[in-house]
Task: structure prediction
Amino acid sequence: MASPAAVVYATSPSSACQSIAGRRGRSWLAASCRGNGTQNVGRTKLVFRPASWLLRGTIGYGYFSPRALWWLLLLVITGWFIYGRGYTAGNIVPTDKDVYNLFVPNHDLPGFYEPFHALPYSLENSFPMVKFGVQDKWTPKTDVQNISGGHIGWLAKLSSTIASSNFLRCFRWVQICIGWILTTLFVGGVTGIIRTD
Result:
């Protein structure tokens, strides 16, 4: 056994692998360590760099957790605008079958049915644990409408695309996923799970 003074500390995992393989007389293993060491560096950068950007931008690596609430607020405000535009265009409809049949032709609701409100709907989709009951009563249309604009401007095309039922459904799915991620990162940052003190 080597004395503690004779132990050489490696500066990287690949050089540690090479030194162990070299001492044991296995040159093929040392060559394999050299190859893996250079290849894994690029792979880890591709995996950890986006995760690092996400942690830095959303919660400041756990030191600025309220930053995630600002991102959630931005998500709620964006959803409020998009869902409001979709409701005005008639692409957010009641989930109840009988009310749907009354609502679609002329945008009229019976007195007993809760009216649509874009802000609580957006809050429900952004915060996983918040429920106001709007999401249970309203949903984007499932039938696909082909929007052919002819000679309309780019702003009108953008507005009609945002109000389309396909866009509303996709935005809702993305909003729910981002809401879960941001809420989880906020809770992890507040509790100190993510911090590395």
Summary: The two ends are 36 Å apart (CA to CA). The CA atoms of residues 24 and 30 lie 10 Å apart. The longest strand covers residues 92-94.
